[in-house]
Amino acid sequence: MNKQHERTPQGSATKRRTAGRKNFDTAPTIISGKNYLSSYLDDCYHHTCLSLYQNPPIGEIGLEEFEVWAIERLKILNEIDSALKRNKPFQEIELIVLPMLNKSLPLILSKDQDKNTENRRKDYYSHFILKLCFSRSAELREKFVKCETIIFKVRFESMSGVEQRQFVQHMNLPWEYITSAEKAEMSQQLYTSIQPSLRFQLNLTDEISRRDYFEKEEFIKIPFEYVPELISSRSVFLKQGHAFVPKFQQINLLTLEFTGNLQKTLISTSHAFPTLDEEDRLIPILNHLGAANNFLEDDSVFDELMNSEVNSVTVKSTKITRNFPLCASHLMDGLTSAHHLKYLARKQFSLFLKWIGLSVDEALKFWASEFTQTMGMDKFEKEYKYNFRHDYGLEGSKIKYKPWDCRKILSQPRPHAGEYHGCPYRDLSKDSLKAQLKSMGLKDEEVYGVLEINSKGDPTASCTKVLELKTNGLVNEIVTHPNLYYDRMRVYHKKLDDTEGETAAEAES
Amino acid sequence: MTSSESQEKSQEPTTVPSSSTSEASQPQDVQPKAKVSSSDMEFYYKNLLPFRYVFQWLNHSPKPSTDFTMREFAYEFQSGAYRRYNSFDSLEDFKESIVKNNPSRFEVGAVYEINPRDRKSVPKSKMKPMEKELAFDIDLTDYDDVRTCCSKTAICTKCWKFITIATKIMDVALREDFGFEHIIWVFSGRRGAHCWVSDKRARQLNESQRRSVIEYMDVLKNKGTKRLNLRRPFHPHVQRSIDLLKAEFLDIILNEQDPWADDQAAFTALLKFPLEPLNKKLKEYWIENPGRSSLDKWSDINKICTDLSLQKYDLLAVNETKEELILEATYPRLDVEVTRQMNHLLKSPFCIHPGTGNVCVPFDSKNVFDPTKAPNLHQLQNEIIGWKGDNEVNDINRTSLKPYVESFGKYVTNLLKSEKNGKREREDESLEF
């Protein structure tokens, strides 16, 4: 039991008390426990509505809460992730995220201390539960950090000045506000250092308002190592290894601290994960949560697919190929007509197929069946087999390769004649694209609509439109990844088949 | 600095061997720039290179610590072969290996989490550099557009002034802005200089912090290949650099280098004023009066401004552009990657430059260093052969390398002292808890 306490802060996010121990808990201790929890959380949030999530969560949590809370937070993270992927500026993301936070994870302080505690508990636990979920690979960790940092920033910006200051003071950072005497002493250097940022960042266009702002501004003295971005851009005054950061830049400091802290604890969580003795209770929930988020890196999403419908024969059937984005159909066409693909096309296609669930053995069968129509099996085994096995992480440096996303595909050298890799929306001539779209079953006016979008120069926008059209407007997701397109189409078709099956069954009965 | 003084005092080498005890079986070849043979190198490693100081400088303590034992060294051989990930357990091991392998030069890298020798037994991701001196590299070839006295690999005392002013600007920024104290400059043996900062705080910087330091310093952005785009008012560091450069600009650029005597060069370099009439007028004037010197052309700017009777506001803009031109011509041109990458290797002080035979001697930015008088291996060998004094004197002290070794020794002693104090302070702090 105690071991579990020590293992990780996150380990204690789980139900900490055994049933046996609970027998000793009498009513009074529960009340004091509640008070204790309330003041503990007060400390974690520095009496504000923001936390660095440094201390482990305490108290009890039911399995249901565990899952429900995590899902609610996950929804927000997914929303942020998709906004980030679409390159939205922070202000726009803030507009999306703040209402969601206020709805599912409100932290605005009220007089009702019980309510505050309850809100904080939910926020605190959900953060730590997802930390467990996301600690398992470098990609997931990076995403978690990015999205949680946005939440942190949005919340900080929504706090009052008094609260902000209170929060900053409670953070144990090696920084101090300089005295007005110190400020006066360096005023010339301080002002010239921040004058450009006042102008371009805070849009203070005239000198008088800039001076005014400067006179009122407070400065923080901090070792220069903490503010690399501000040093790079020469936006702060430096003296004897200290940077003098104007208060309006402090959010940079805070997010840096937040991010650094989070990265560290994520790593330690990932180390602790294998020793988590929770095979029966928590791991299934965590796996389920992992599947609920659409981050492709998570293996558990594909475990189920791996032994499913895709094999060396079915991969060519319409049941599968109808879900293909145009790039994949184009590659399949190339392969079945030439019985060969060049290096980049092989790589692009084989990784795509791998992640729709084609196992390595089936993949080798599939590729061999095509390639051996123009060459002997010897040659295939000698020159190509290694290649495909490499894609599956079985050769060489044994890297688990991920399927190429649209950005990666678009950044490769463009295909020459007789090559099939790349993105057809970018690489095909207008006429051949038109023919391809028609063969995908789009109506004439739909084809023209797509061509119209395509002429604007963003190929993924065309693909997004096609996905929307093919799913009768039911899927409006931005296509950033061929496998995302495949997945959405597959789900769509599956639903369609199921309802058709049902109606057929109904008709029969 | 004593080094340059006593170096000049040192006697001219004679070719007659005076004492037979000298180990130098060497050279009849007195040419200072003659090619360095592998036996010359072996002699140098055995007798002259001050391994102890280099060891202490990298080890930060007299007894071997992980700062040294986990540090990567790379060998470059005459054949061009390059061997990375060497590491040594002690000063003796260090010297022995270098004498045995006899590389044409060796480079210093980072301190790793895993002993560099054992890198094959761990995954690549484990080979993380933990600490390294903060390093800077300035090379005169990057100044070829403003350098008329020499080009490519050649240098002279005139163009070395670019390096001298660069070391001053860097030195003051490193000390005053970043608070570093243990800074040493090293002649790279031919046409540039390296700067090593050994403060504990500098060694512990991670890559993004190193990037921030170099970007702060790299006012020109990539050796001036990009158009200057500095925000006004200038940051205190830029302003201080301008003030230092203004004084030197007249001397180095206008009088000595005179890069804009060539009219075409002047057109591309100087006509960057935000006032088209001024650019046009200047160009016309220089076409009418071809071949005016850089100094003349520089003063022409003011003259034409008066002719055009520019407003105060415009004059301000002209002055700002002039300041930018001064920066573009003289501000240090830095190699960003050397500073940014923690696993980057840099030639060790006191190596021999394989092309010139010059010793990569350390120097102080506060004193004038003359690279054309830097000790050269063949010269040193001759000095030993020509030694007429006491036979008990060791080889280093018979040569003009002596003052450089001594001043480096002092520098290292200081570094070790502050390291020891720092350690004590840190221990005291931890006792408080």
UniProtKB/TrEMBL annotation, chain A:
One family name in Pfam for this protein: DNA_primase_lrg_N
Keyword Ligase: no
Ranges for region Disordered: 1-26
Name of the protein described by the UniProt record: DNA primase large subunit
Organism: Wickerhamomyces pijperi (Yeast)
Limits of the DNA primase large subunit C-terminal domain: 321-486
Cofactor(s) essential for the protein: [4Fe-4S] cluster
Main function: DNA primase is the polymerase that synthesizes small RNA primers for the Okazaki fragments made during discontinuous DNA replication.
Family: Belongs to the eukaryotic-type primase large subunit family.
Domain of life: Eukaryota
Keywords from the UniProt entry: 4Fe-4S, DNA replication, DNA-binding, Iron, Iron-sulfur, Metal-binding, Primosome
Lineage: Eukaryota, Fungi, Dikarya, Ascomycota, Saccharomycotina
Keyword Plastid: no
Automatic annotation (TrEMBL), chain B:
Listed Gene3D superfamilies: DNA primase, PRIM domain
Region (Disordered): 1-36
Protein name in the entry: DNA primase
EC assignment: 2.7.7.-
UniProt feature, compositional bias: Low complexity: 12-28
Keyword Nucleotidyltransferase part of the UniProt annotation: yes
Gene Ontology molecular function, alphabetical: DNA-directed RNA polymerase activity; metal ion binding
Keywords: DNA replication, DNA-directed RNA polymerase, Metal-binding, Nucleotidyltransferase, Primosome, Transcription, Transferase, Zinc
Cellular component, GO annotation: alpha DNA polymerase:primase complex
SUPFAM superfamilies, per the entry: Prim-pol domain
Top EC class, one word: transferase
InterPro entries from the UniProt entry: DNA_primase_S, DNA_primase_ssu_euk/arc
CDD domains registered for this protein in UniProt: AE_Prim_S
Pfam families: DNA_primase_S
Bias (Basic and acidic residues) ranges: 1-11
NCBIfam families linked: primase_sml (TIGR00335)
Single GO biological process annotation from the record: DNA replication, synthesis of primer
Family, similarity comment: Belongs to the eukaryotic-type primase small subunit family.
